[in-house]
Amino acid sequence: MSDWEIIKKIIYICNFINIFYVILSKFKNSIINLNPGSQPEIQMVNKMKKLKIIFPAAIIMLAMVISVTSCKKKETTTTEEDTETNSASDNMFAERISNDIENIAGEVSDVDTMSQYRRNCFEEQKSIFTGCANVTRDGSTKKITVTFNGQTCLDGHIRSGSLTLDYSSSTFGKVHYRTPGFTLVVTSTDYVVDGNKVTINKTIKNITNAGFNPANTNLTWSITANISIVKANGGGTITWQANRTKELLNTKDSTVYRGQSLHIMWSKADIGLNGNTSGTTAGGESFTANITHQLVRKMTCVPNSLYPNRHPFIQGKIEFTRGPRATRYIDYGNEKDCDNIATVTVKGVSHTITLQ
User: Fold this and answer.
1) Which residues contact 98 (CB under 8 A, 6 or more apart)?
2) Within 10 A of 65 (CB to CB), how many other CB atoms are there?
3) 118: Cβ–Cβ under 8 A, 6 or more apart, which residues?
4) Closest Cα to residue 187, out of 226, 220, 154?
5) What distance in Å separates the CA atoms of residue 65 and residue 55, rounded to the nearest whole number?
């Protein structure tokens, strides 16, 4: 409650008391006129004297109570601790889902296989699981379909449903992810990851200049994405829209980018992301997230030996803003540290997040 509101309340109370006092005075005068010098007159006069003392005192006490209450409310508001990190975690979760799809699309459209996600023949022979996905390419429609069978992929995540990769809008008949002018539209059908239903519409374009020199120019793609994630166990729905650029940071490494005639060695790739996102958290609040330092994902980094093909971001920073709350600063760390840890800092206080 502001000081002006307190003053207005006191004015209202004073006006009420004045009106009451006038009415009481008239009542007293009517009694005196009827019975001058009577005992009721004397009693009324005494009561009026007491009221003259009690009313001002009551006003002062009421003002003090209102002021104290207002101060307590202000104090509570300014000292309230802000430790919420779930909204930032929602963004990181959507980020991971989106980039997994991006990596799947990149690998599949470049080599027609999924070595980073699907068990190879030797591994299948020593495991009770078969491969987690089947890949088919239709050259006539220029579409690739990735169908998951609900089993665990090499990165430890369980996927079902399918992804459709349509490259029919590529310029000059480009068919590979590595080729400048290649365009890929990714959509999903009943796609579920670890019980979370994902609906996606994503467009990826290779915007590298034709005839580029890999010694001084990285392969680069533009990415626009619109994703909805219905979280498992009634955890709410995340919506996530992105505008990004992606780089193959070690394009100059001839063991990674081996020219246009051979596919990229994705198992050795260093990937960088820049751009921004927006959407709503699982709690229904709007947010924006801007990458302030490039996100880096190294496919050679394996922080958990149980999941040899799980490669989290290990470097980069994001400024995450949700509604009227303070900005959350997400830090994925230093690229020298291969781990699955990130920190979320709120008002100078850091909280540790484990990446999945």
Assistant:
1) 200, 202, 225, 227, 240, 242
2) 10
3) 131, 132, 133, 153, 154
4) 226
5) 15
Q: Please choose, from the candidates 343, 292, 288, the residue with its C-alpha nearest in 3D space to the C-alpha of residue 314.
A: 343
Q: Give the distance from CA 305 to its chain's centroid.
A: 28
Q: How far apart are CA 237 and CA 355, in angstroms?
A: 19
Tell me, yes or no, if the pTM score tops 0.85: no
Residue extents of the structural domains in the chain: 3-75, 86-354
Statement: residue 119 has pLDDT above 60: no
Q: What is the pLDDT of residues 260-314, one digit of tens each?
A: 999 999 999 999 999 999 999 999 999 999 999 999 999 999 999 888 888 999 9
Q: Left (φ > 0), alpha (ψ -120 to 50) or beta: where does 172 sit?
A: left
